[in-house]
Amino acid sequence: MKACFLRLRFLWCVLLAAMLTACGSYPSSPSSQLSPPLRAATNPQSCAALAGVSIPADRIGASAGLKSGAAVVDSATWTAATPLRLGTGPMPEAMVNPATPEHCKVLGHIRPVDPAAPNIHFQVNLPKEWTGAAVQLGGGGFNGVLINGYSLVRGAPFDKPAPLALGFVTVGTDSGHQNKPGVPLQAFAANEEAFVNFAHAAYKKVKDVAVALMQITYGSAPRYMVFSGSSEGGREGLTMAQRYPRDFQGVISRVPVINWTGLMHIGMSNGLAAMNEGWMNDEQTRLVHDAVLAACDLLDGAKDGIVSDPVGCRSKFDAASLLCKAGQGADCLNSAQIQAIKTLHAPMHYPFALAHAVTQYPGRGPSAEALPTLGVNGPMGGWKAWWLGSAPPAMPTRPDTRSWDYSMGAIQHIFMQKPNASAQELFSYKMENHLARVQQVSALMDSTNPDLSAFHEAGGKLILMEYMGDYAQSPYAGIAYFESVQRQLGAQRVAQFAKLYAVPGVDHVGSGAPATADLFNALTAWIERGVAPAGLTLYEHSRELPLAAVRSRPLCEWPLVTRYKGGDINTASSFACEK
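The structure corresponding to this sequence follows.
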């Protein structure tokens, strides 16, 4: 009888939660109007009662005009606390498994509208002691893997607690499709609903479900929610600010694949430039890397192996200086290799405008060409990982080169929509021959809308971070976007709610130089107390407990760069942010 009563009570709570969700019950107002911190709690009994709970379809995404199936909680498991421990992978992001508190681990799915579309899977972690805030964590690559919400915010210092340990509800999703062995990562896009979910809809739908679960569990919607993501997850964060400006009161967007359509196409262009005689081995890549340092390392006054002013370096480094002279057979490059570098550094101009009147994708570098970082699936840093691969090109694909693999897969499955396309068809692909589809994809995928006025008016705060040694995507795309927002709204207004940081010498995953900064606590202070980020520090950590900082630099707001002022070259206080 008691169990029956509890079930009826929870079903009533579900209905109430759904009604509140539809009405937008939690504040999207400026930080001065936030309610005080909550002191709500859950326990093993209330956790177990969530299993089997259903949230009606018309309460998921309805406020934004999205269609959805119902959501179902597949399992709700009370989970013991775990201590901080080292991770198993050599990538910075895999080094730390942060401590977690006692919590209710909720796994579930959202049914599609199209019976042929996959479910959207989600995980919501409800801490025993809740302070009334939540964070949704973005994915990576083409997604298809459930984000469990246990990690540090991407780019956070390794010795800081994760959001769950701070009393935040954490939320993750697979974006509405599931990777399968032997199936191309992009094959899911053949289903229109799955592709729209990946583009934007899944994150809004999962957010609505998470809010309903918080209302059921704690009796209250969150005071505010944050979206934090890196790479593809960074694109998702910007997309939330642009498409759903009242849903998240804060966004951290780190190394976002912001101009997604352009990135997929320039990946093909850059890959073709490095074919045949244009390819470079490790020694030749190191030759370029050393030449860049020789030209640019001292621009900040410190010889430390970091190009602190990569924009200034563009006018200092000339790849043509490495061209082999007559009779020279080593320590130089051939003309095809020089042209490949120039292609990598140059923007790609489109034959027509993409969404929001974007007409080009910016070039990369110079900086961080030969970073040796290894990831769990191969090299992750510099040219070798993203552009050149570990061996001369093997036609028609280069599976060891992520940029090429991602780009050609997207062109085949998403732009051409031809899974069985031949190598000849792929290599003869041109944007202008697929104008309607390219523009359709751009409108879905590109987070390039500069009008963030609704996000600002709702009290939203944005932190955008670019790593200037990034070859997975161009950091100059994020810089161009930020500057477009300033043109749209005015730099003075943008300064009230958005910050851009450009970090020198660091690759896509955060290796090569000090790269971690406490953006999460800076963002929450901005939301809760109206204190804008200032005086932040970048850290590089040891790979052993207690994860001490071994090198630090000031985190400079764009367009400032670090300048050495004297003192310990490994300490942030020896540098200043200047023009």
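DSSP finds 16 helices and 22 strands in the chain.
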